[in-house]
Input
Amino acid sequence: MQIQLIRNATLRIDFAGRRFIIDPFLAPKHTMESFTGESLNPVVDLPCAPQEAVEGVEMVVVSHLHPDHIDQIAVELLLPKEIPVFCQPGDEVAFKRARFGSVTPVESSAKWNGITITRTPGRHGTGFMAEQMGRVSGFIFEAEGEPRVYWAGDTIWYDGVARVLKHMEPDIVITHSGGAKFPGSGPIIMDTEQTISVCEAAPQATVIATHMESLDHLTVSRADLRTLAEQKGIAANRLLIPADGETLSL
Output
């Protein structure tokens, strides 16, 4: 399989002979409002033309509806209305309103062209902030002859993630590791320490850290994460930290 990090949480994945995209956030640099007052978002350009990001894509998976995970450019201009969309329950209403014709809310699991898609829980922060951020999901992808991939989504490290790692024993874990924060809040996605916790809890897995250096509320750099991983003895081939546009073959 191949995983290409486009930017932020957006990944283009070749898996079991199929190509799909997750969380398509394709807006140009500085065309969206700031989250913290520091900069317009996104803070970096796409590494390719937005049309190139969706080239050959046959299916879309969306973790939740926050604008840095699915944006109007993707919805209105780039994704064909007949493309299959998989999402968490409740979010299908927005996609159907946008006139997508094949929308599947994944309550527990669904199948598409030999790929099993299983929804997993997430917690987008703690306490009041988690309530404000709303429901989020991750997804596991499985197919014959392919590694088991757990995309954790916009979640902090908590017992729900630990249970998935223990019971599903994924071969690949994709984390959102940018340590996003709002003024006065704790992290609403994983930070450096929480990403290392994932590595330690899943010693059999390759961890791929994404959702970094792309928005003004992200506080963790790739260098920060690599430094802590080296201090904790996490090998570079166990924790992959791709650059925007980079393709990983696994």
Summary: The mean pLDDT is 97.
